[in-house]
Amino acid sequence: MKQWNKCSKTILAMxxxxxxxxxxxxxxAASNFLAEVxxxxxxxxxxxxxxxxxxxxxxxxxxxxxxxxxxxxMAMIVQQAVGNENAMTDEQKAAxxxxxxxxxxxxxxxxxxNKLDTLDxxxxxxxxxxxxxxxxxxxxxxxxxxxxxxxxxxxxxTVNGYVRVRNDHFxxxxxxxxxxKRSTRANMIHVAVDTTYKINENWQGHADIGYRNSLSGFDxxxxxxxxxxQTGFTWDTYLTGTMPxxxxxxxxxxxxxxxxxGWGMDIDCDFSGFQFRQGKKDFKTYFTAGQMDLWDxxxxxDRTKEKVTSLRFFYPFDKKNDVNFGMSWSSPMxxxxxxxxxxRVFYYYAHGHHKFDKNWDLRAGMIASxxxxxxxxxxxxxxxxxxxxxxxxxxxxxxxxxPGTYSIVADYRYEPALSWPxxxxxxxxxxxxLRLGFNYVPAKNILxxxxxxxxxxxDTGVKDDLYxxxxxxxx
Length: 475
Fold this sequence. Notes:
Elements: H1 8-21, H2 23-33, H3 42-52, H4 71-82, H5 90-102, H6 104-117, H7 121-128, H8 141-156, E1 157-173, E2 180-198, E3 203-214, E4 222-223, E5 231-243, E6 248-258, E7 268-278, E8 284-292, E9 306-316, E10 321-330, E11 345-355, E12 360-369, E13 388-395, E14 406-415, E15 431-443, E16 446-457, E17 464-474
Parallel strand pairs: 4-5
Antiparallel strand pairs: 1-2, 1-17, 2-3, 3-5, 5-6, 6-7, 7-8, 8-9, 9-10, 10-11, 11-12, 12-13, 13-14, 14-15, 15-16, 16-17
């Protein structure tokens, strides 16, 4: 049976390769070759179908559910499969070719590393002792030390990120409702560099650094924590770890939480605190506590951070269906017309997901709250308190590793201020919208996405349409 974590010799070879080809190779290996393959990536299901069919030599056991592999590990599996295509059916060959295309350059690196990996133990010892290896010249003490440091760092450090260029335009009603005006909301560039350092088998340290520049001049204030329309640097540091025997995953510190399920708060938000995830099998329980930026001060309130406690549950019935539900408690917000004397506002929500086939994907959710209207705010009495709801239909899937892939996304959101704790996915406060978007991968690791959004205030009907074009470059 193949051991998933048995690649230390290959890692040493990678250190040698880094010394041979220079610092740029080290950066590429750290950011791509050892980067994690996302947990929900299609590669796992495709690789497991081949392993289960017994056509991947040396792999008798499927990749365990929830196990996250590096691109190096996945490339090793693909390489074994490619070498056994003569024993496959046409369908299995097609699946193998798809994997081969996605991991082509990783396999090229692996081929080079395998050549270095053929050094026997005496030759490796010769390198460490300053002797000659594979016909090469002797290493100096400084070079030997550099090799060891490169191997150790390549094994422990992962670097990845993206560069995002965004252009937004609003088409909205004037305040008096007599006409329309166009306004540039944001011409923005955002650079993110995320680093992960492996402390040991169970714990990792993270430092995520970002820079945002609002080129439109909408808000050029320098900030240590700039929002989407400010200029400045962001810095998030946190720890993640696991306790395998307890089935427990932990996270502590400050991080950006991006979660399509929303967990009762926001799809994209800055959070400080801790999060526990428990569950050895499919059913997962999440407990989160701390403070979060829910944009109260940006929408007319006076809070920069809201205290939040959340308990949510996730269960996948099968590969095509899952459900996410739970509850959360957060500080009341003036911008949501909520009474300040209410210590915490209670929200409860549910989210379902169904995958029809390889092309069509549907999500739907609802959220409600027990928020009390602010008696000092005259507008609060006019705001409805219906449950918030949303539905999203997706056709195809844009895959960063596969140029030419695309997705078409249709969204509907209804987010009453009293029922929904924040603005999500660029739905304005107390708004409903219909959105049609298109995403396209013109080249590997480049994503172009655009959408048009027809938005209206729920209670007044004021127009707040939005058009966006965005280009993202991942590394």
